[in-house]
Each structure stands twice: as structure tokens, then as C-alpha cells.
Amino acid sequence: MGMGTNVFVATSLLDMYCKCGSMDRARGVFDEMVDKDVVCWGAMINDYASNGLPKEALELFSHMQRDKVKPDCFTFVGVLSACARLGALELGEKFSCLIDKNELSVNPILGTALIDMYAKCGSITRAWRTFQGMMERDLVLWNAVISGLAMNGHVKSAFGLFAQTEKMGIRPDGNTIIGILCGCTHAGLVDEGRRFFDSIQCIYSLIPRIEHYGCMVDLLSRGGLLVEAHQLILDMPFKANAVVWGALLGGCRLHKDTQLAEHVLKQLIELEPWNSGNYVLLSNIFSVTGRWDDAENLRLIMNERGLQKTPGCSWIEMDGVVHEFRVGDQSHPLSAKIYMKLDELSTELRPLGYKPKTDFVLFDIEEEERSIPLAVIVRS
């Protein structure tokens, strides 16, 4: 490209590619850069993390350390975000120690990243301790701890902290309300969710965003109020996106409403015809209601349209090492032992009443495979 020596131009180009989701091209620009400063490293690490590539973000951080480039606060925001996505608590704690070792000041931005990482890794105690240790607290930091409490089941504490911010004169923003609504969803608090949703305009003078409607649709759908959730979508002042319709489709699966699910799928196909996940979810709804022929027909439609199901993926951290698993994949070096252990657990659980829920097994699993322990087939 001829831009490898111009750090400013190359960094701008890298950022542009990342925002467009073209990570391969972004990495190509990064690799061509001759003199990479901490800003370049931090930008690439953060872009990996924000584009759903947490392992790549952590691997690049390792390269950065090998090149003896001292990380700054911005770099640690990226690696902590990657840890949050992976649920890698032990790694996150090591990065927290590195922050102290590098004598970096934990400003609200870095503090928010730490709180978010701890909360998403399930360590709400560490998240709260970090929050209490922060001398400078902005609204984003408050939002992080409120959301963290809510997502970890401490909904009443989240409500209490929200009330505390009001008493302190801290005006909530749209993200604050999203955190509260998500907490209501996790706890199944439909009435409280309605109250907070109604307060967005009448009390806080905020304009509801599509994310707020999405939270409410999710809350109502999980609670079995599918008609109300559908009507809320129809009454929205803007066109619903795939996330909103997807929340309703998830409720249809949970409550086995195939008629509404078929209608929702039509909306989703118009919005994202390339997304095989929508077909898979509807197929699972057909399966759970015994409509195996319809599930098979949906599979044929996918084949005709050249759609392939993206394998599920999950991660687990052990001794500071992140292990990746994909559905049906046996490439892990300890795969044989893992499957053997799952078989042992299944054998021990059956006398205790364990029975695999084969009606929720993905539709491309053959009939004879449905007796295999579900955890072996679907590990994410």
C-alpha cells in the first residue's frame, strides 16, 4: 500500500477497515506498519475485541509484550473487553495486576472496563470492590456496575443503586435504563419493566431507542406475553430490526408458538436473508412441537438457498488458558477424554432421572444421534 511508514495514515486506514468489519484488511495494514507505537497496538487490539474476535485480541497483546511495547490504559480496555467476552476471569485478574505493575492510573474508562469484565465473568464481588475503590465516578461507570448487578441476579441491589444515583442528582441516560430493563428480564419482573419503560419519556424526558423496545420485547416474550410483545413491535415509531424480531422468536420457541414464529421468521428473512440461525431456531420450534416434517422442509429450503448453519462456539478458561469448543468438533487435543467423561456423567445421571431433551437438539442431527448426551452435541 505504500503507507507502512506513515503511522497516522495507516492507523486511520486500520480504523476504517475495522469499523467496516473488514478485519483481514485491517490486520494487513497493521502488519505492513514498520514503526508501530502503542496507539497502533491498542487500536488493533480494541478493534479485534469490539468485532467479536477476543482470542485474536489476546494473541496480539502477547505479540505486543514480546515486542516490549509498554501498554497504556486504552490497550488494557481492549484486553479486558476480550476477557469479558470469553469469561476468562483468571486472565482478567492477571491484566488487573499488570495495570498495577505498570503504575497506570485507573480512570473511569479503565475502571468501567474492569467492572464490566468482572461482572461478565460472574465475579460481582470484585466488580463491586473495584467500583468502591474508584474516586472519580462518571455516569458510564455507574451504568457498568448497575448493569453488572442486574445481570448477576442482584436486581434489587441494582434498583437500589439506581435510586441512589437519583438522590445524588445524577441524571440517568438511555444506557442506564437498558441496564435496569435487562435486570428485569433476567428476574422476570414484567410489571417493574413496564414501569421503567414508561418512565423513559414521562419522568426522564428521554426518547426511547430501539434497544429499549428490544429489552421490553424480550421481557414480555420470555414472560409468555407474546401478543403484547408483538403489538409493541407493531406500535414502535420505527421499523424493528433483526434483534427485536429475534427476541420475539426466542419467546415463540420458549412457549412453543409455531404460528407466530412462522410470521416472525418471514420478517427476519426480509431483514437478513443470509442468517441461517433464524431458520435453525424456527426448526427447533417445529421439532419441540413434533413437526419433524416441517423441520426437514426448512432444512431443504436452507440447502436450496445455499445457507449453512454456523457451528456454535464456546470457551472455557482453565489455569489461565482459554480452550475453544465448537459443536461437533473433535479437534481439541483432549477431545477423547472429554467425550469419555461426558459419557460417564451421562451414565451416572440416568439412574437419577436424567433424560436428554432431544426435542431441542438442532435439526441437522440424525435421529440415531439424539440419544447421545446433549452436552456432547451442543456445548455452547
Description:
The longest helix has 15 residues. The chain has 20 helices and 2 strands. The two termini are 40 Å apart. The chain has a domain of 106 residues: Tetratricopeptide repeat domain (Serine Threonine Protein Phosphatase 5, Tetratricopeptide repeat, Alpha Horseshoe). α5 packs antiparallel against α6. β1 and β2 form a beta hairpin. The protein has 380 residues and is mainly alpha-helical. The protein has a two-stranded antiparallel ribbon with strand order 1-2.
For the largest sheet, list the strands in their spatial order: 1-2
Q: Rounded to an integer, what's the Rg over CA atoms?
A: 23 Å
> Terminal Cα separation, in Å?
40 Å
Give the number of helices.
20
The multimeric state of the shown protein is single chain
Structural class: mainly alpha
CATH class of the domain at 1-106: Mainly Alpha
State mean pLDDT (0 to 100 scale): 86
Q: What is the third-level CATH name, the topology of the domain at 1-106?
A: Serine Threonine Protein Phosphatase 5, Tetratricopeptide repeat
Give the overall shape, derived from the CA principal axes. globular
User: What is the name of the CATH superfamily of the domain at 1-106?
Assistant: Tetratricopeptide repeat domain
Care to count the β-strands?
2
Using the 3D structure, state the CATH architecture of the domain at 1-106: Alpha Horseshoe
Q: Which sequence of SSEs, written as H and E, runs from N to C?
A: HHHHHHHHHHHHHHHHHHEEHH
Low-pLDDT stretches are 362-380
Please give the largest β-sheet.
2 strands, antiparallel
Binned, the helix content reads 55-70%
Estimate the strand proportion: under 5%
PPR repeats: 6-36, 37-71, 138-172
Organism: Coptis chinensis
Keywords: Repeat
Protein name: Pentatricopeptide repeat-containing protein
